[in-house]
Amino acid sequence: MAYLVDTNILVYRFDPRFPDKQGVARDLLRKALIDDAARIPHQALLEFVAKRGLEPELAFPEEPKAEFQTEASAPIYQKFFLAVEGTEVRGGYFLTYETWRINQTTETVCNYRLPISESLINCAYRGLGRTLVQHATKRNPFLYCLGMTNMRRPLPKMLRAENWWMKKTPFYFRFRPALEGTARVNLPAKQKNMANRDGRG
User: Fold this and answer.
1) Fewest beta carbons less than 10 Å away: which of 13, 62, 70, 194?
2) 76-161: which CATH topology?
């Protein structure tokens, strides 16, 4: 008989602070997957993401509402992709297509964004993350990825294994004199001094 998985089971499975509860949750989910008895409600997934402290903008969107246009004729547009098995969704990602100027030539470059795979909770789908990357690479070989926090997380480790060039990229902003008619933003004194020390003032 199938049963619903509570949010707390998912939370404890990935929380190393309580090894005993983590072990129980791991064994319970493993047995449920083997018996094909577990069903994870949509609401439980949403609560799990919220409790894990994942910012909303870093979660795969519930609906394909693009931040930019979806027509290929636009200079910046997005496409969403799902990994489907029968009627079940096992993963997905989306690409932001951008027009870049590289060495005096115009190229379409893609930002590989928010890949998610069921392999996070089900080892039967191990390798799906790599399949998603390879699928994206076939669509456009000029890919990049930002905002991965550190190199020890699963995504950068997998990209390195796929021979991606990895580079830490700090975000710096160069301030230019304001154009006529634009608004001026006054930085607090502390932030202004920090910008000056970093050569950004």
Assistant:
1) 62
2) Aminopeptidase (3.40.630)
